[in-house]
Amino acid sequence: MRFCETEHLDIALDADANTVSVDRSRASADPRADGGCAVATGAFDDLADRPAVRVLVDGSVVEIFTSAGRSVTTRVYPTQVPPWTIQAPARALVWQLGRTVTTEAVPGHR
């Protein structure tokens, strides 16, 4: 997931090691942001009737769910505002969800 030229979040699938790793070390140029890497082991279930991974992005929250029921949830703090770019294999399915909630002023309230 690319936020700008210098900021990106790397999500790597390793079928041989049966792992998914999420590397936040380059996700933000802000020195206060937490870097590091999270790894989910036993990540894939070849018999499962679902994709190897599903990645959900909601603002600064990134959640990865694997076919074996493992999950990794992290926050990222890029200095670049959206829109961001998803880089994925050609077979990947990508959905962009619209707003599901709208706000409106309540009469008599600020």
Automatic annotation (TrEMBL):
It comes from the Bacteria. It holds the Pfam family Glyco_hydro_32C. Residues 6-79 form the Glycosyl hydrolase family 32 C-terminal domain. SUPFAM superfamilies: Concanavalin A-like lectins/glucanases. InterPro entries: ConA-like_dom_sf, Glyco_hydro_32_C. This is Glycosyl hydrolase family 32 C-terminal domain-containing protein. It comes from Acidipropionibacterium jensenii.
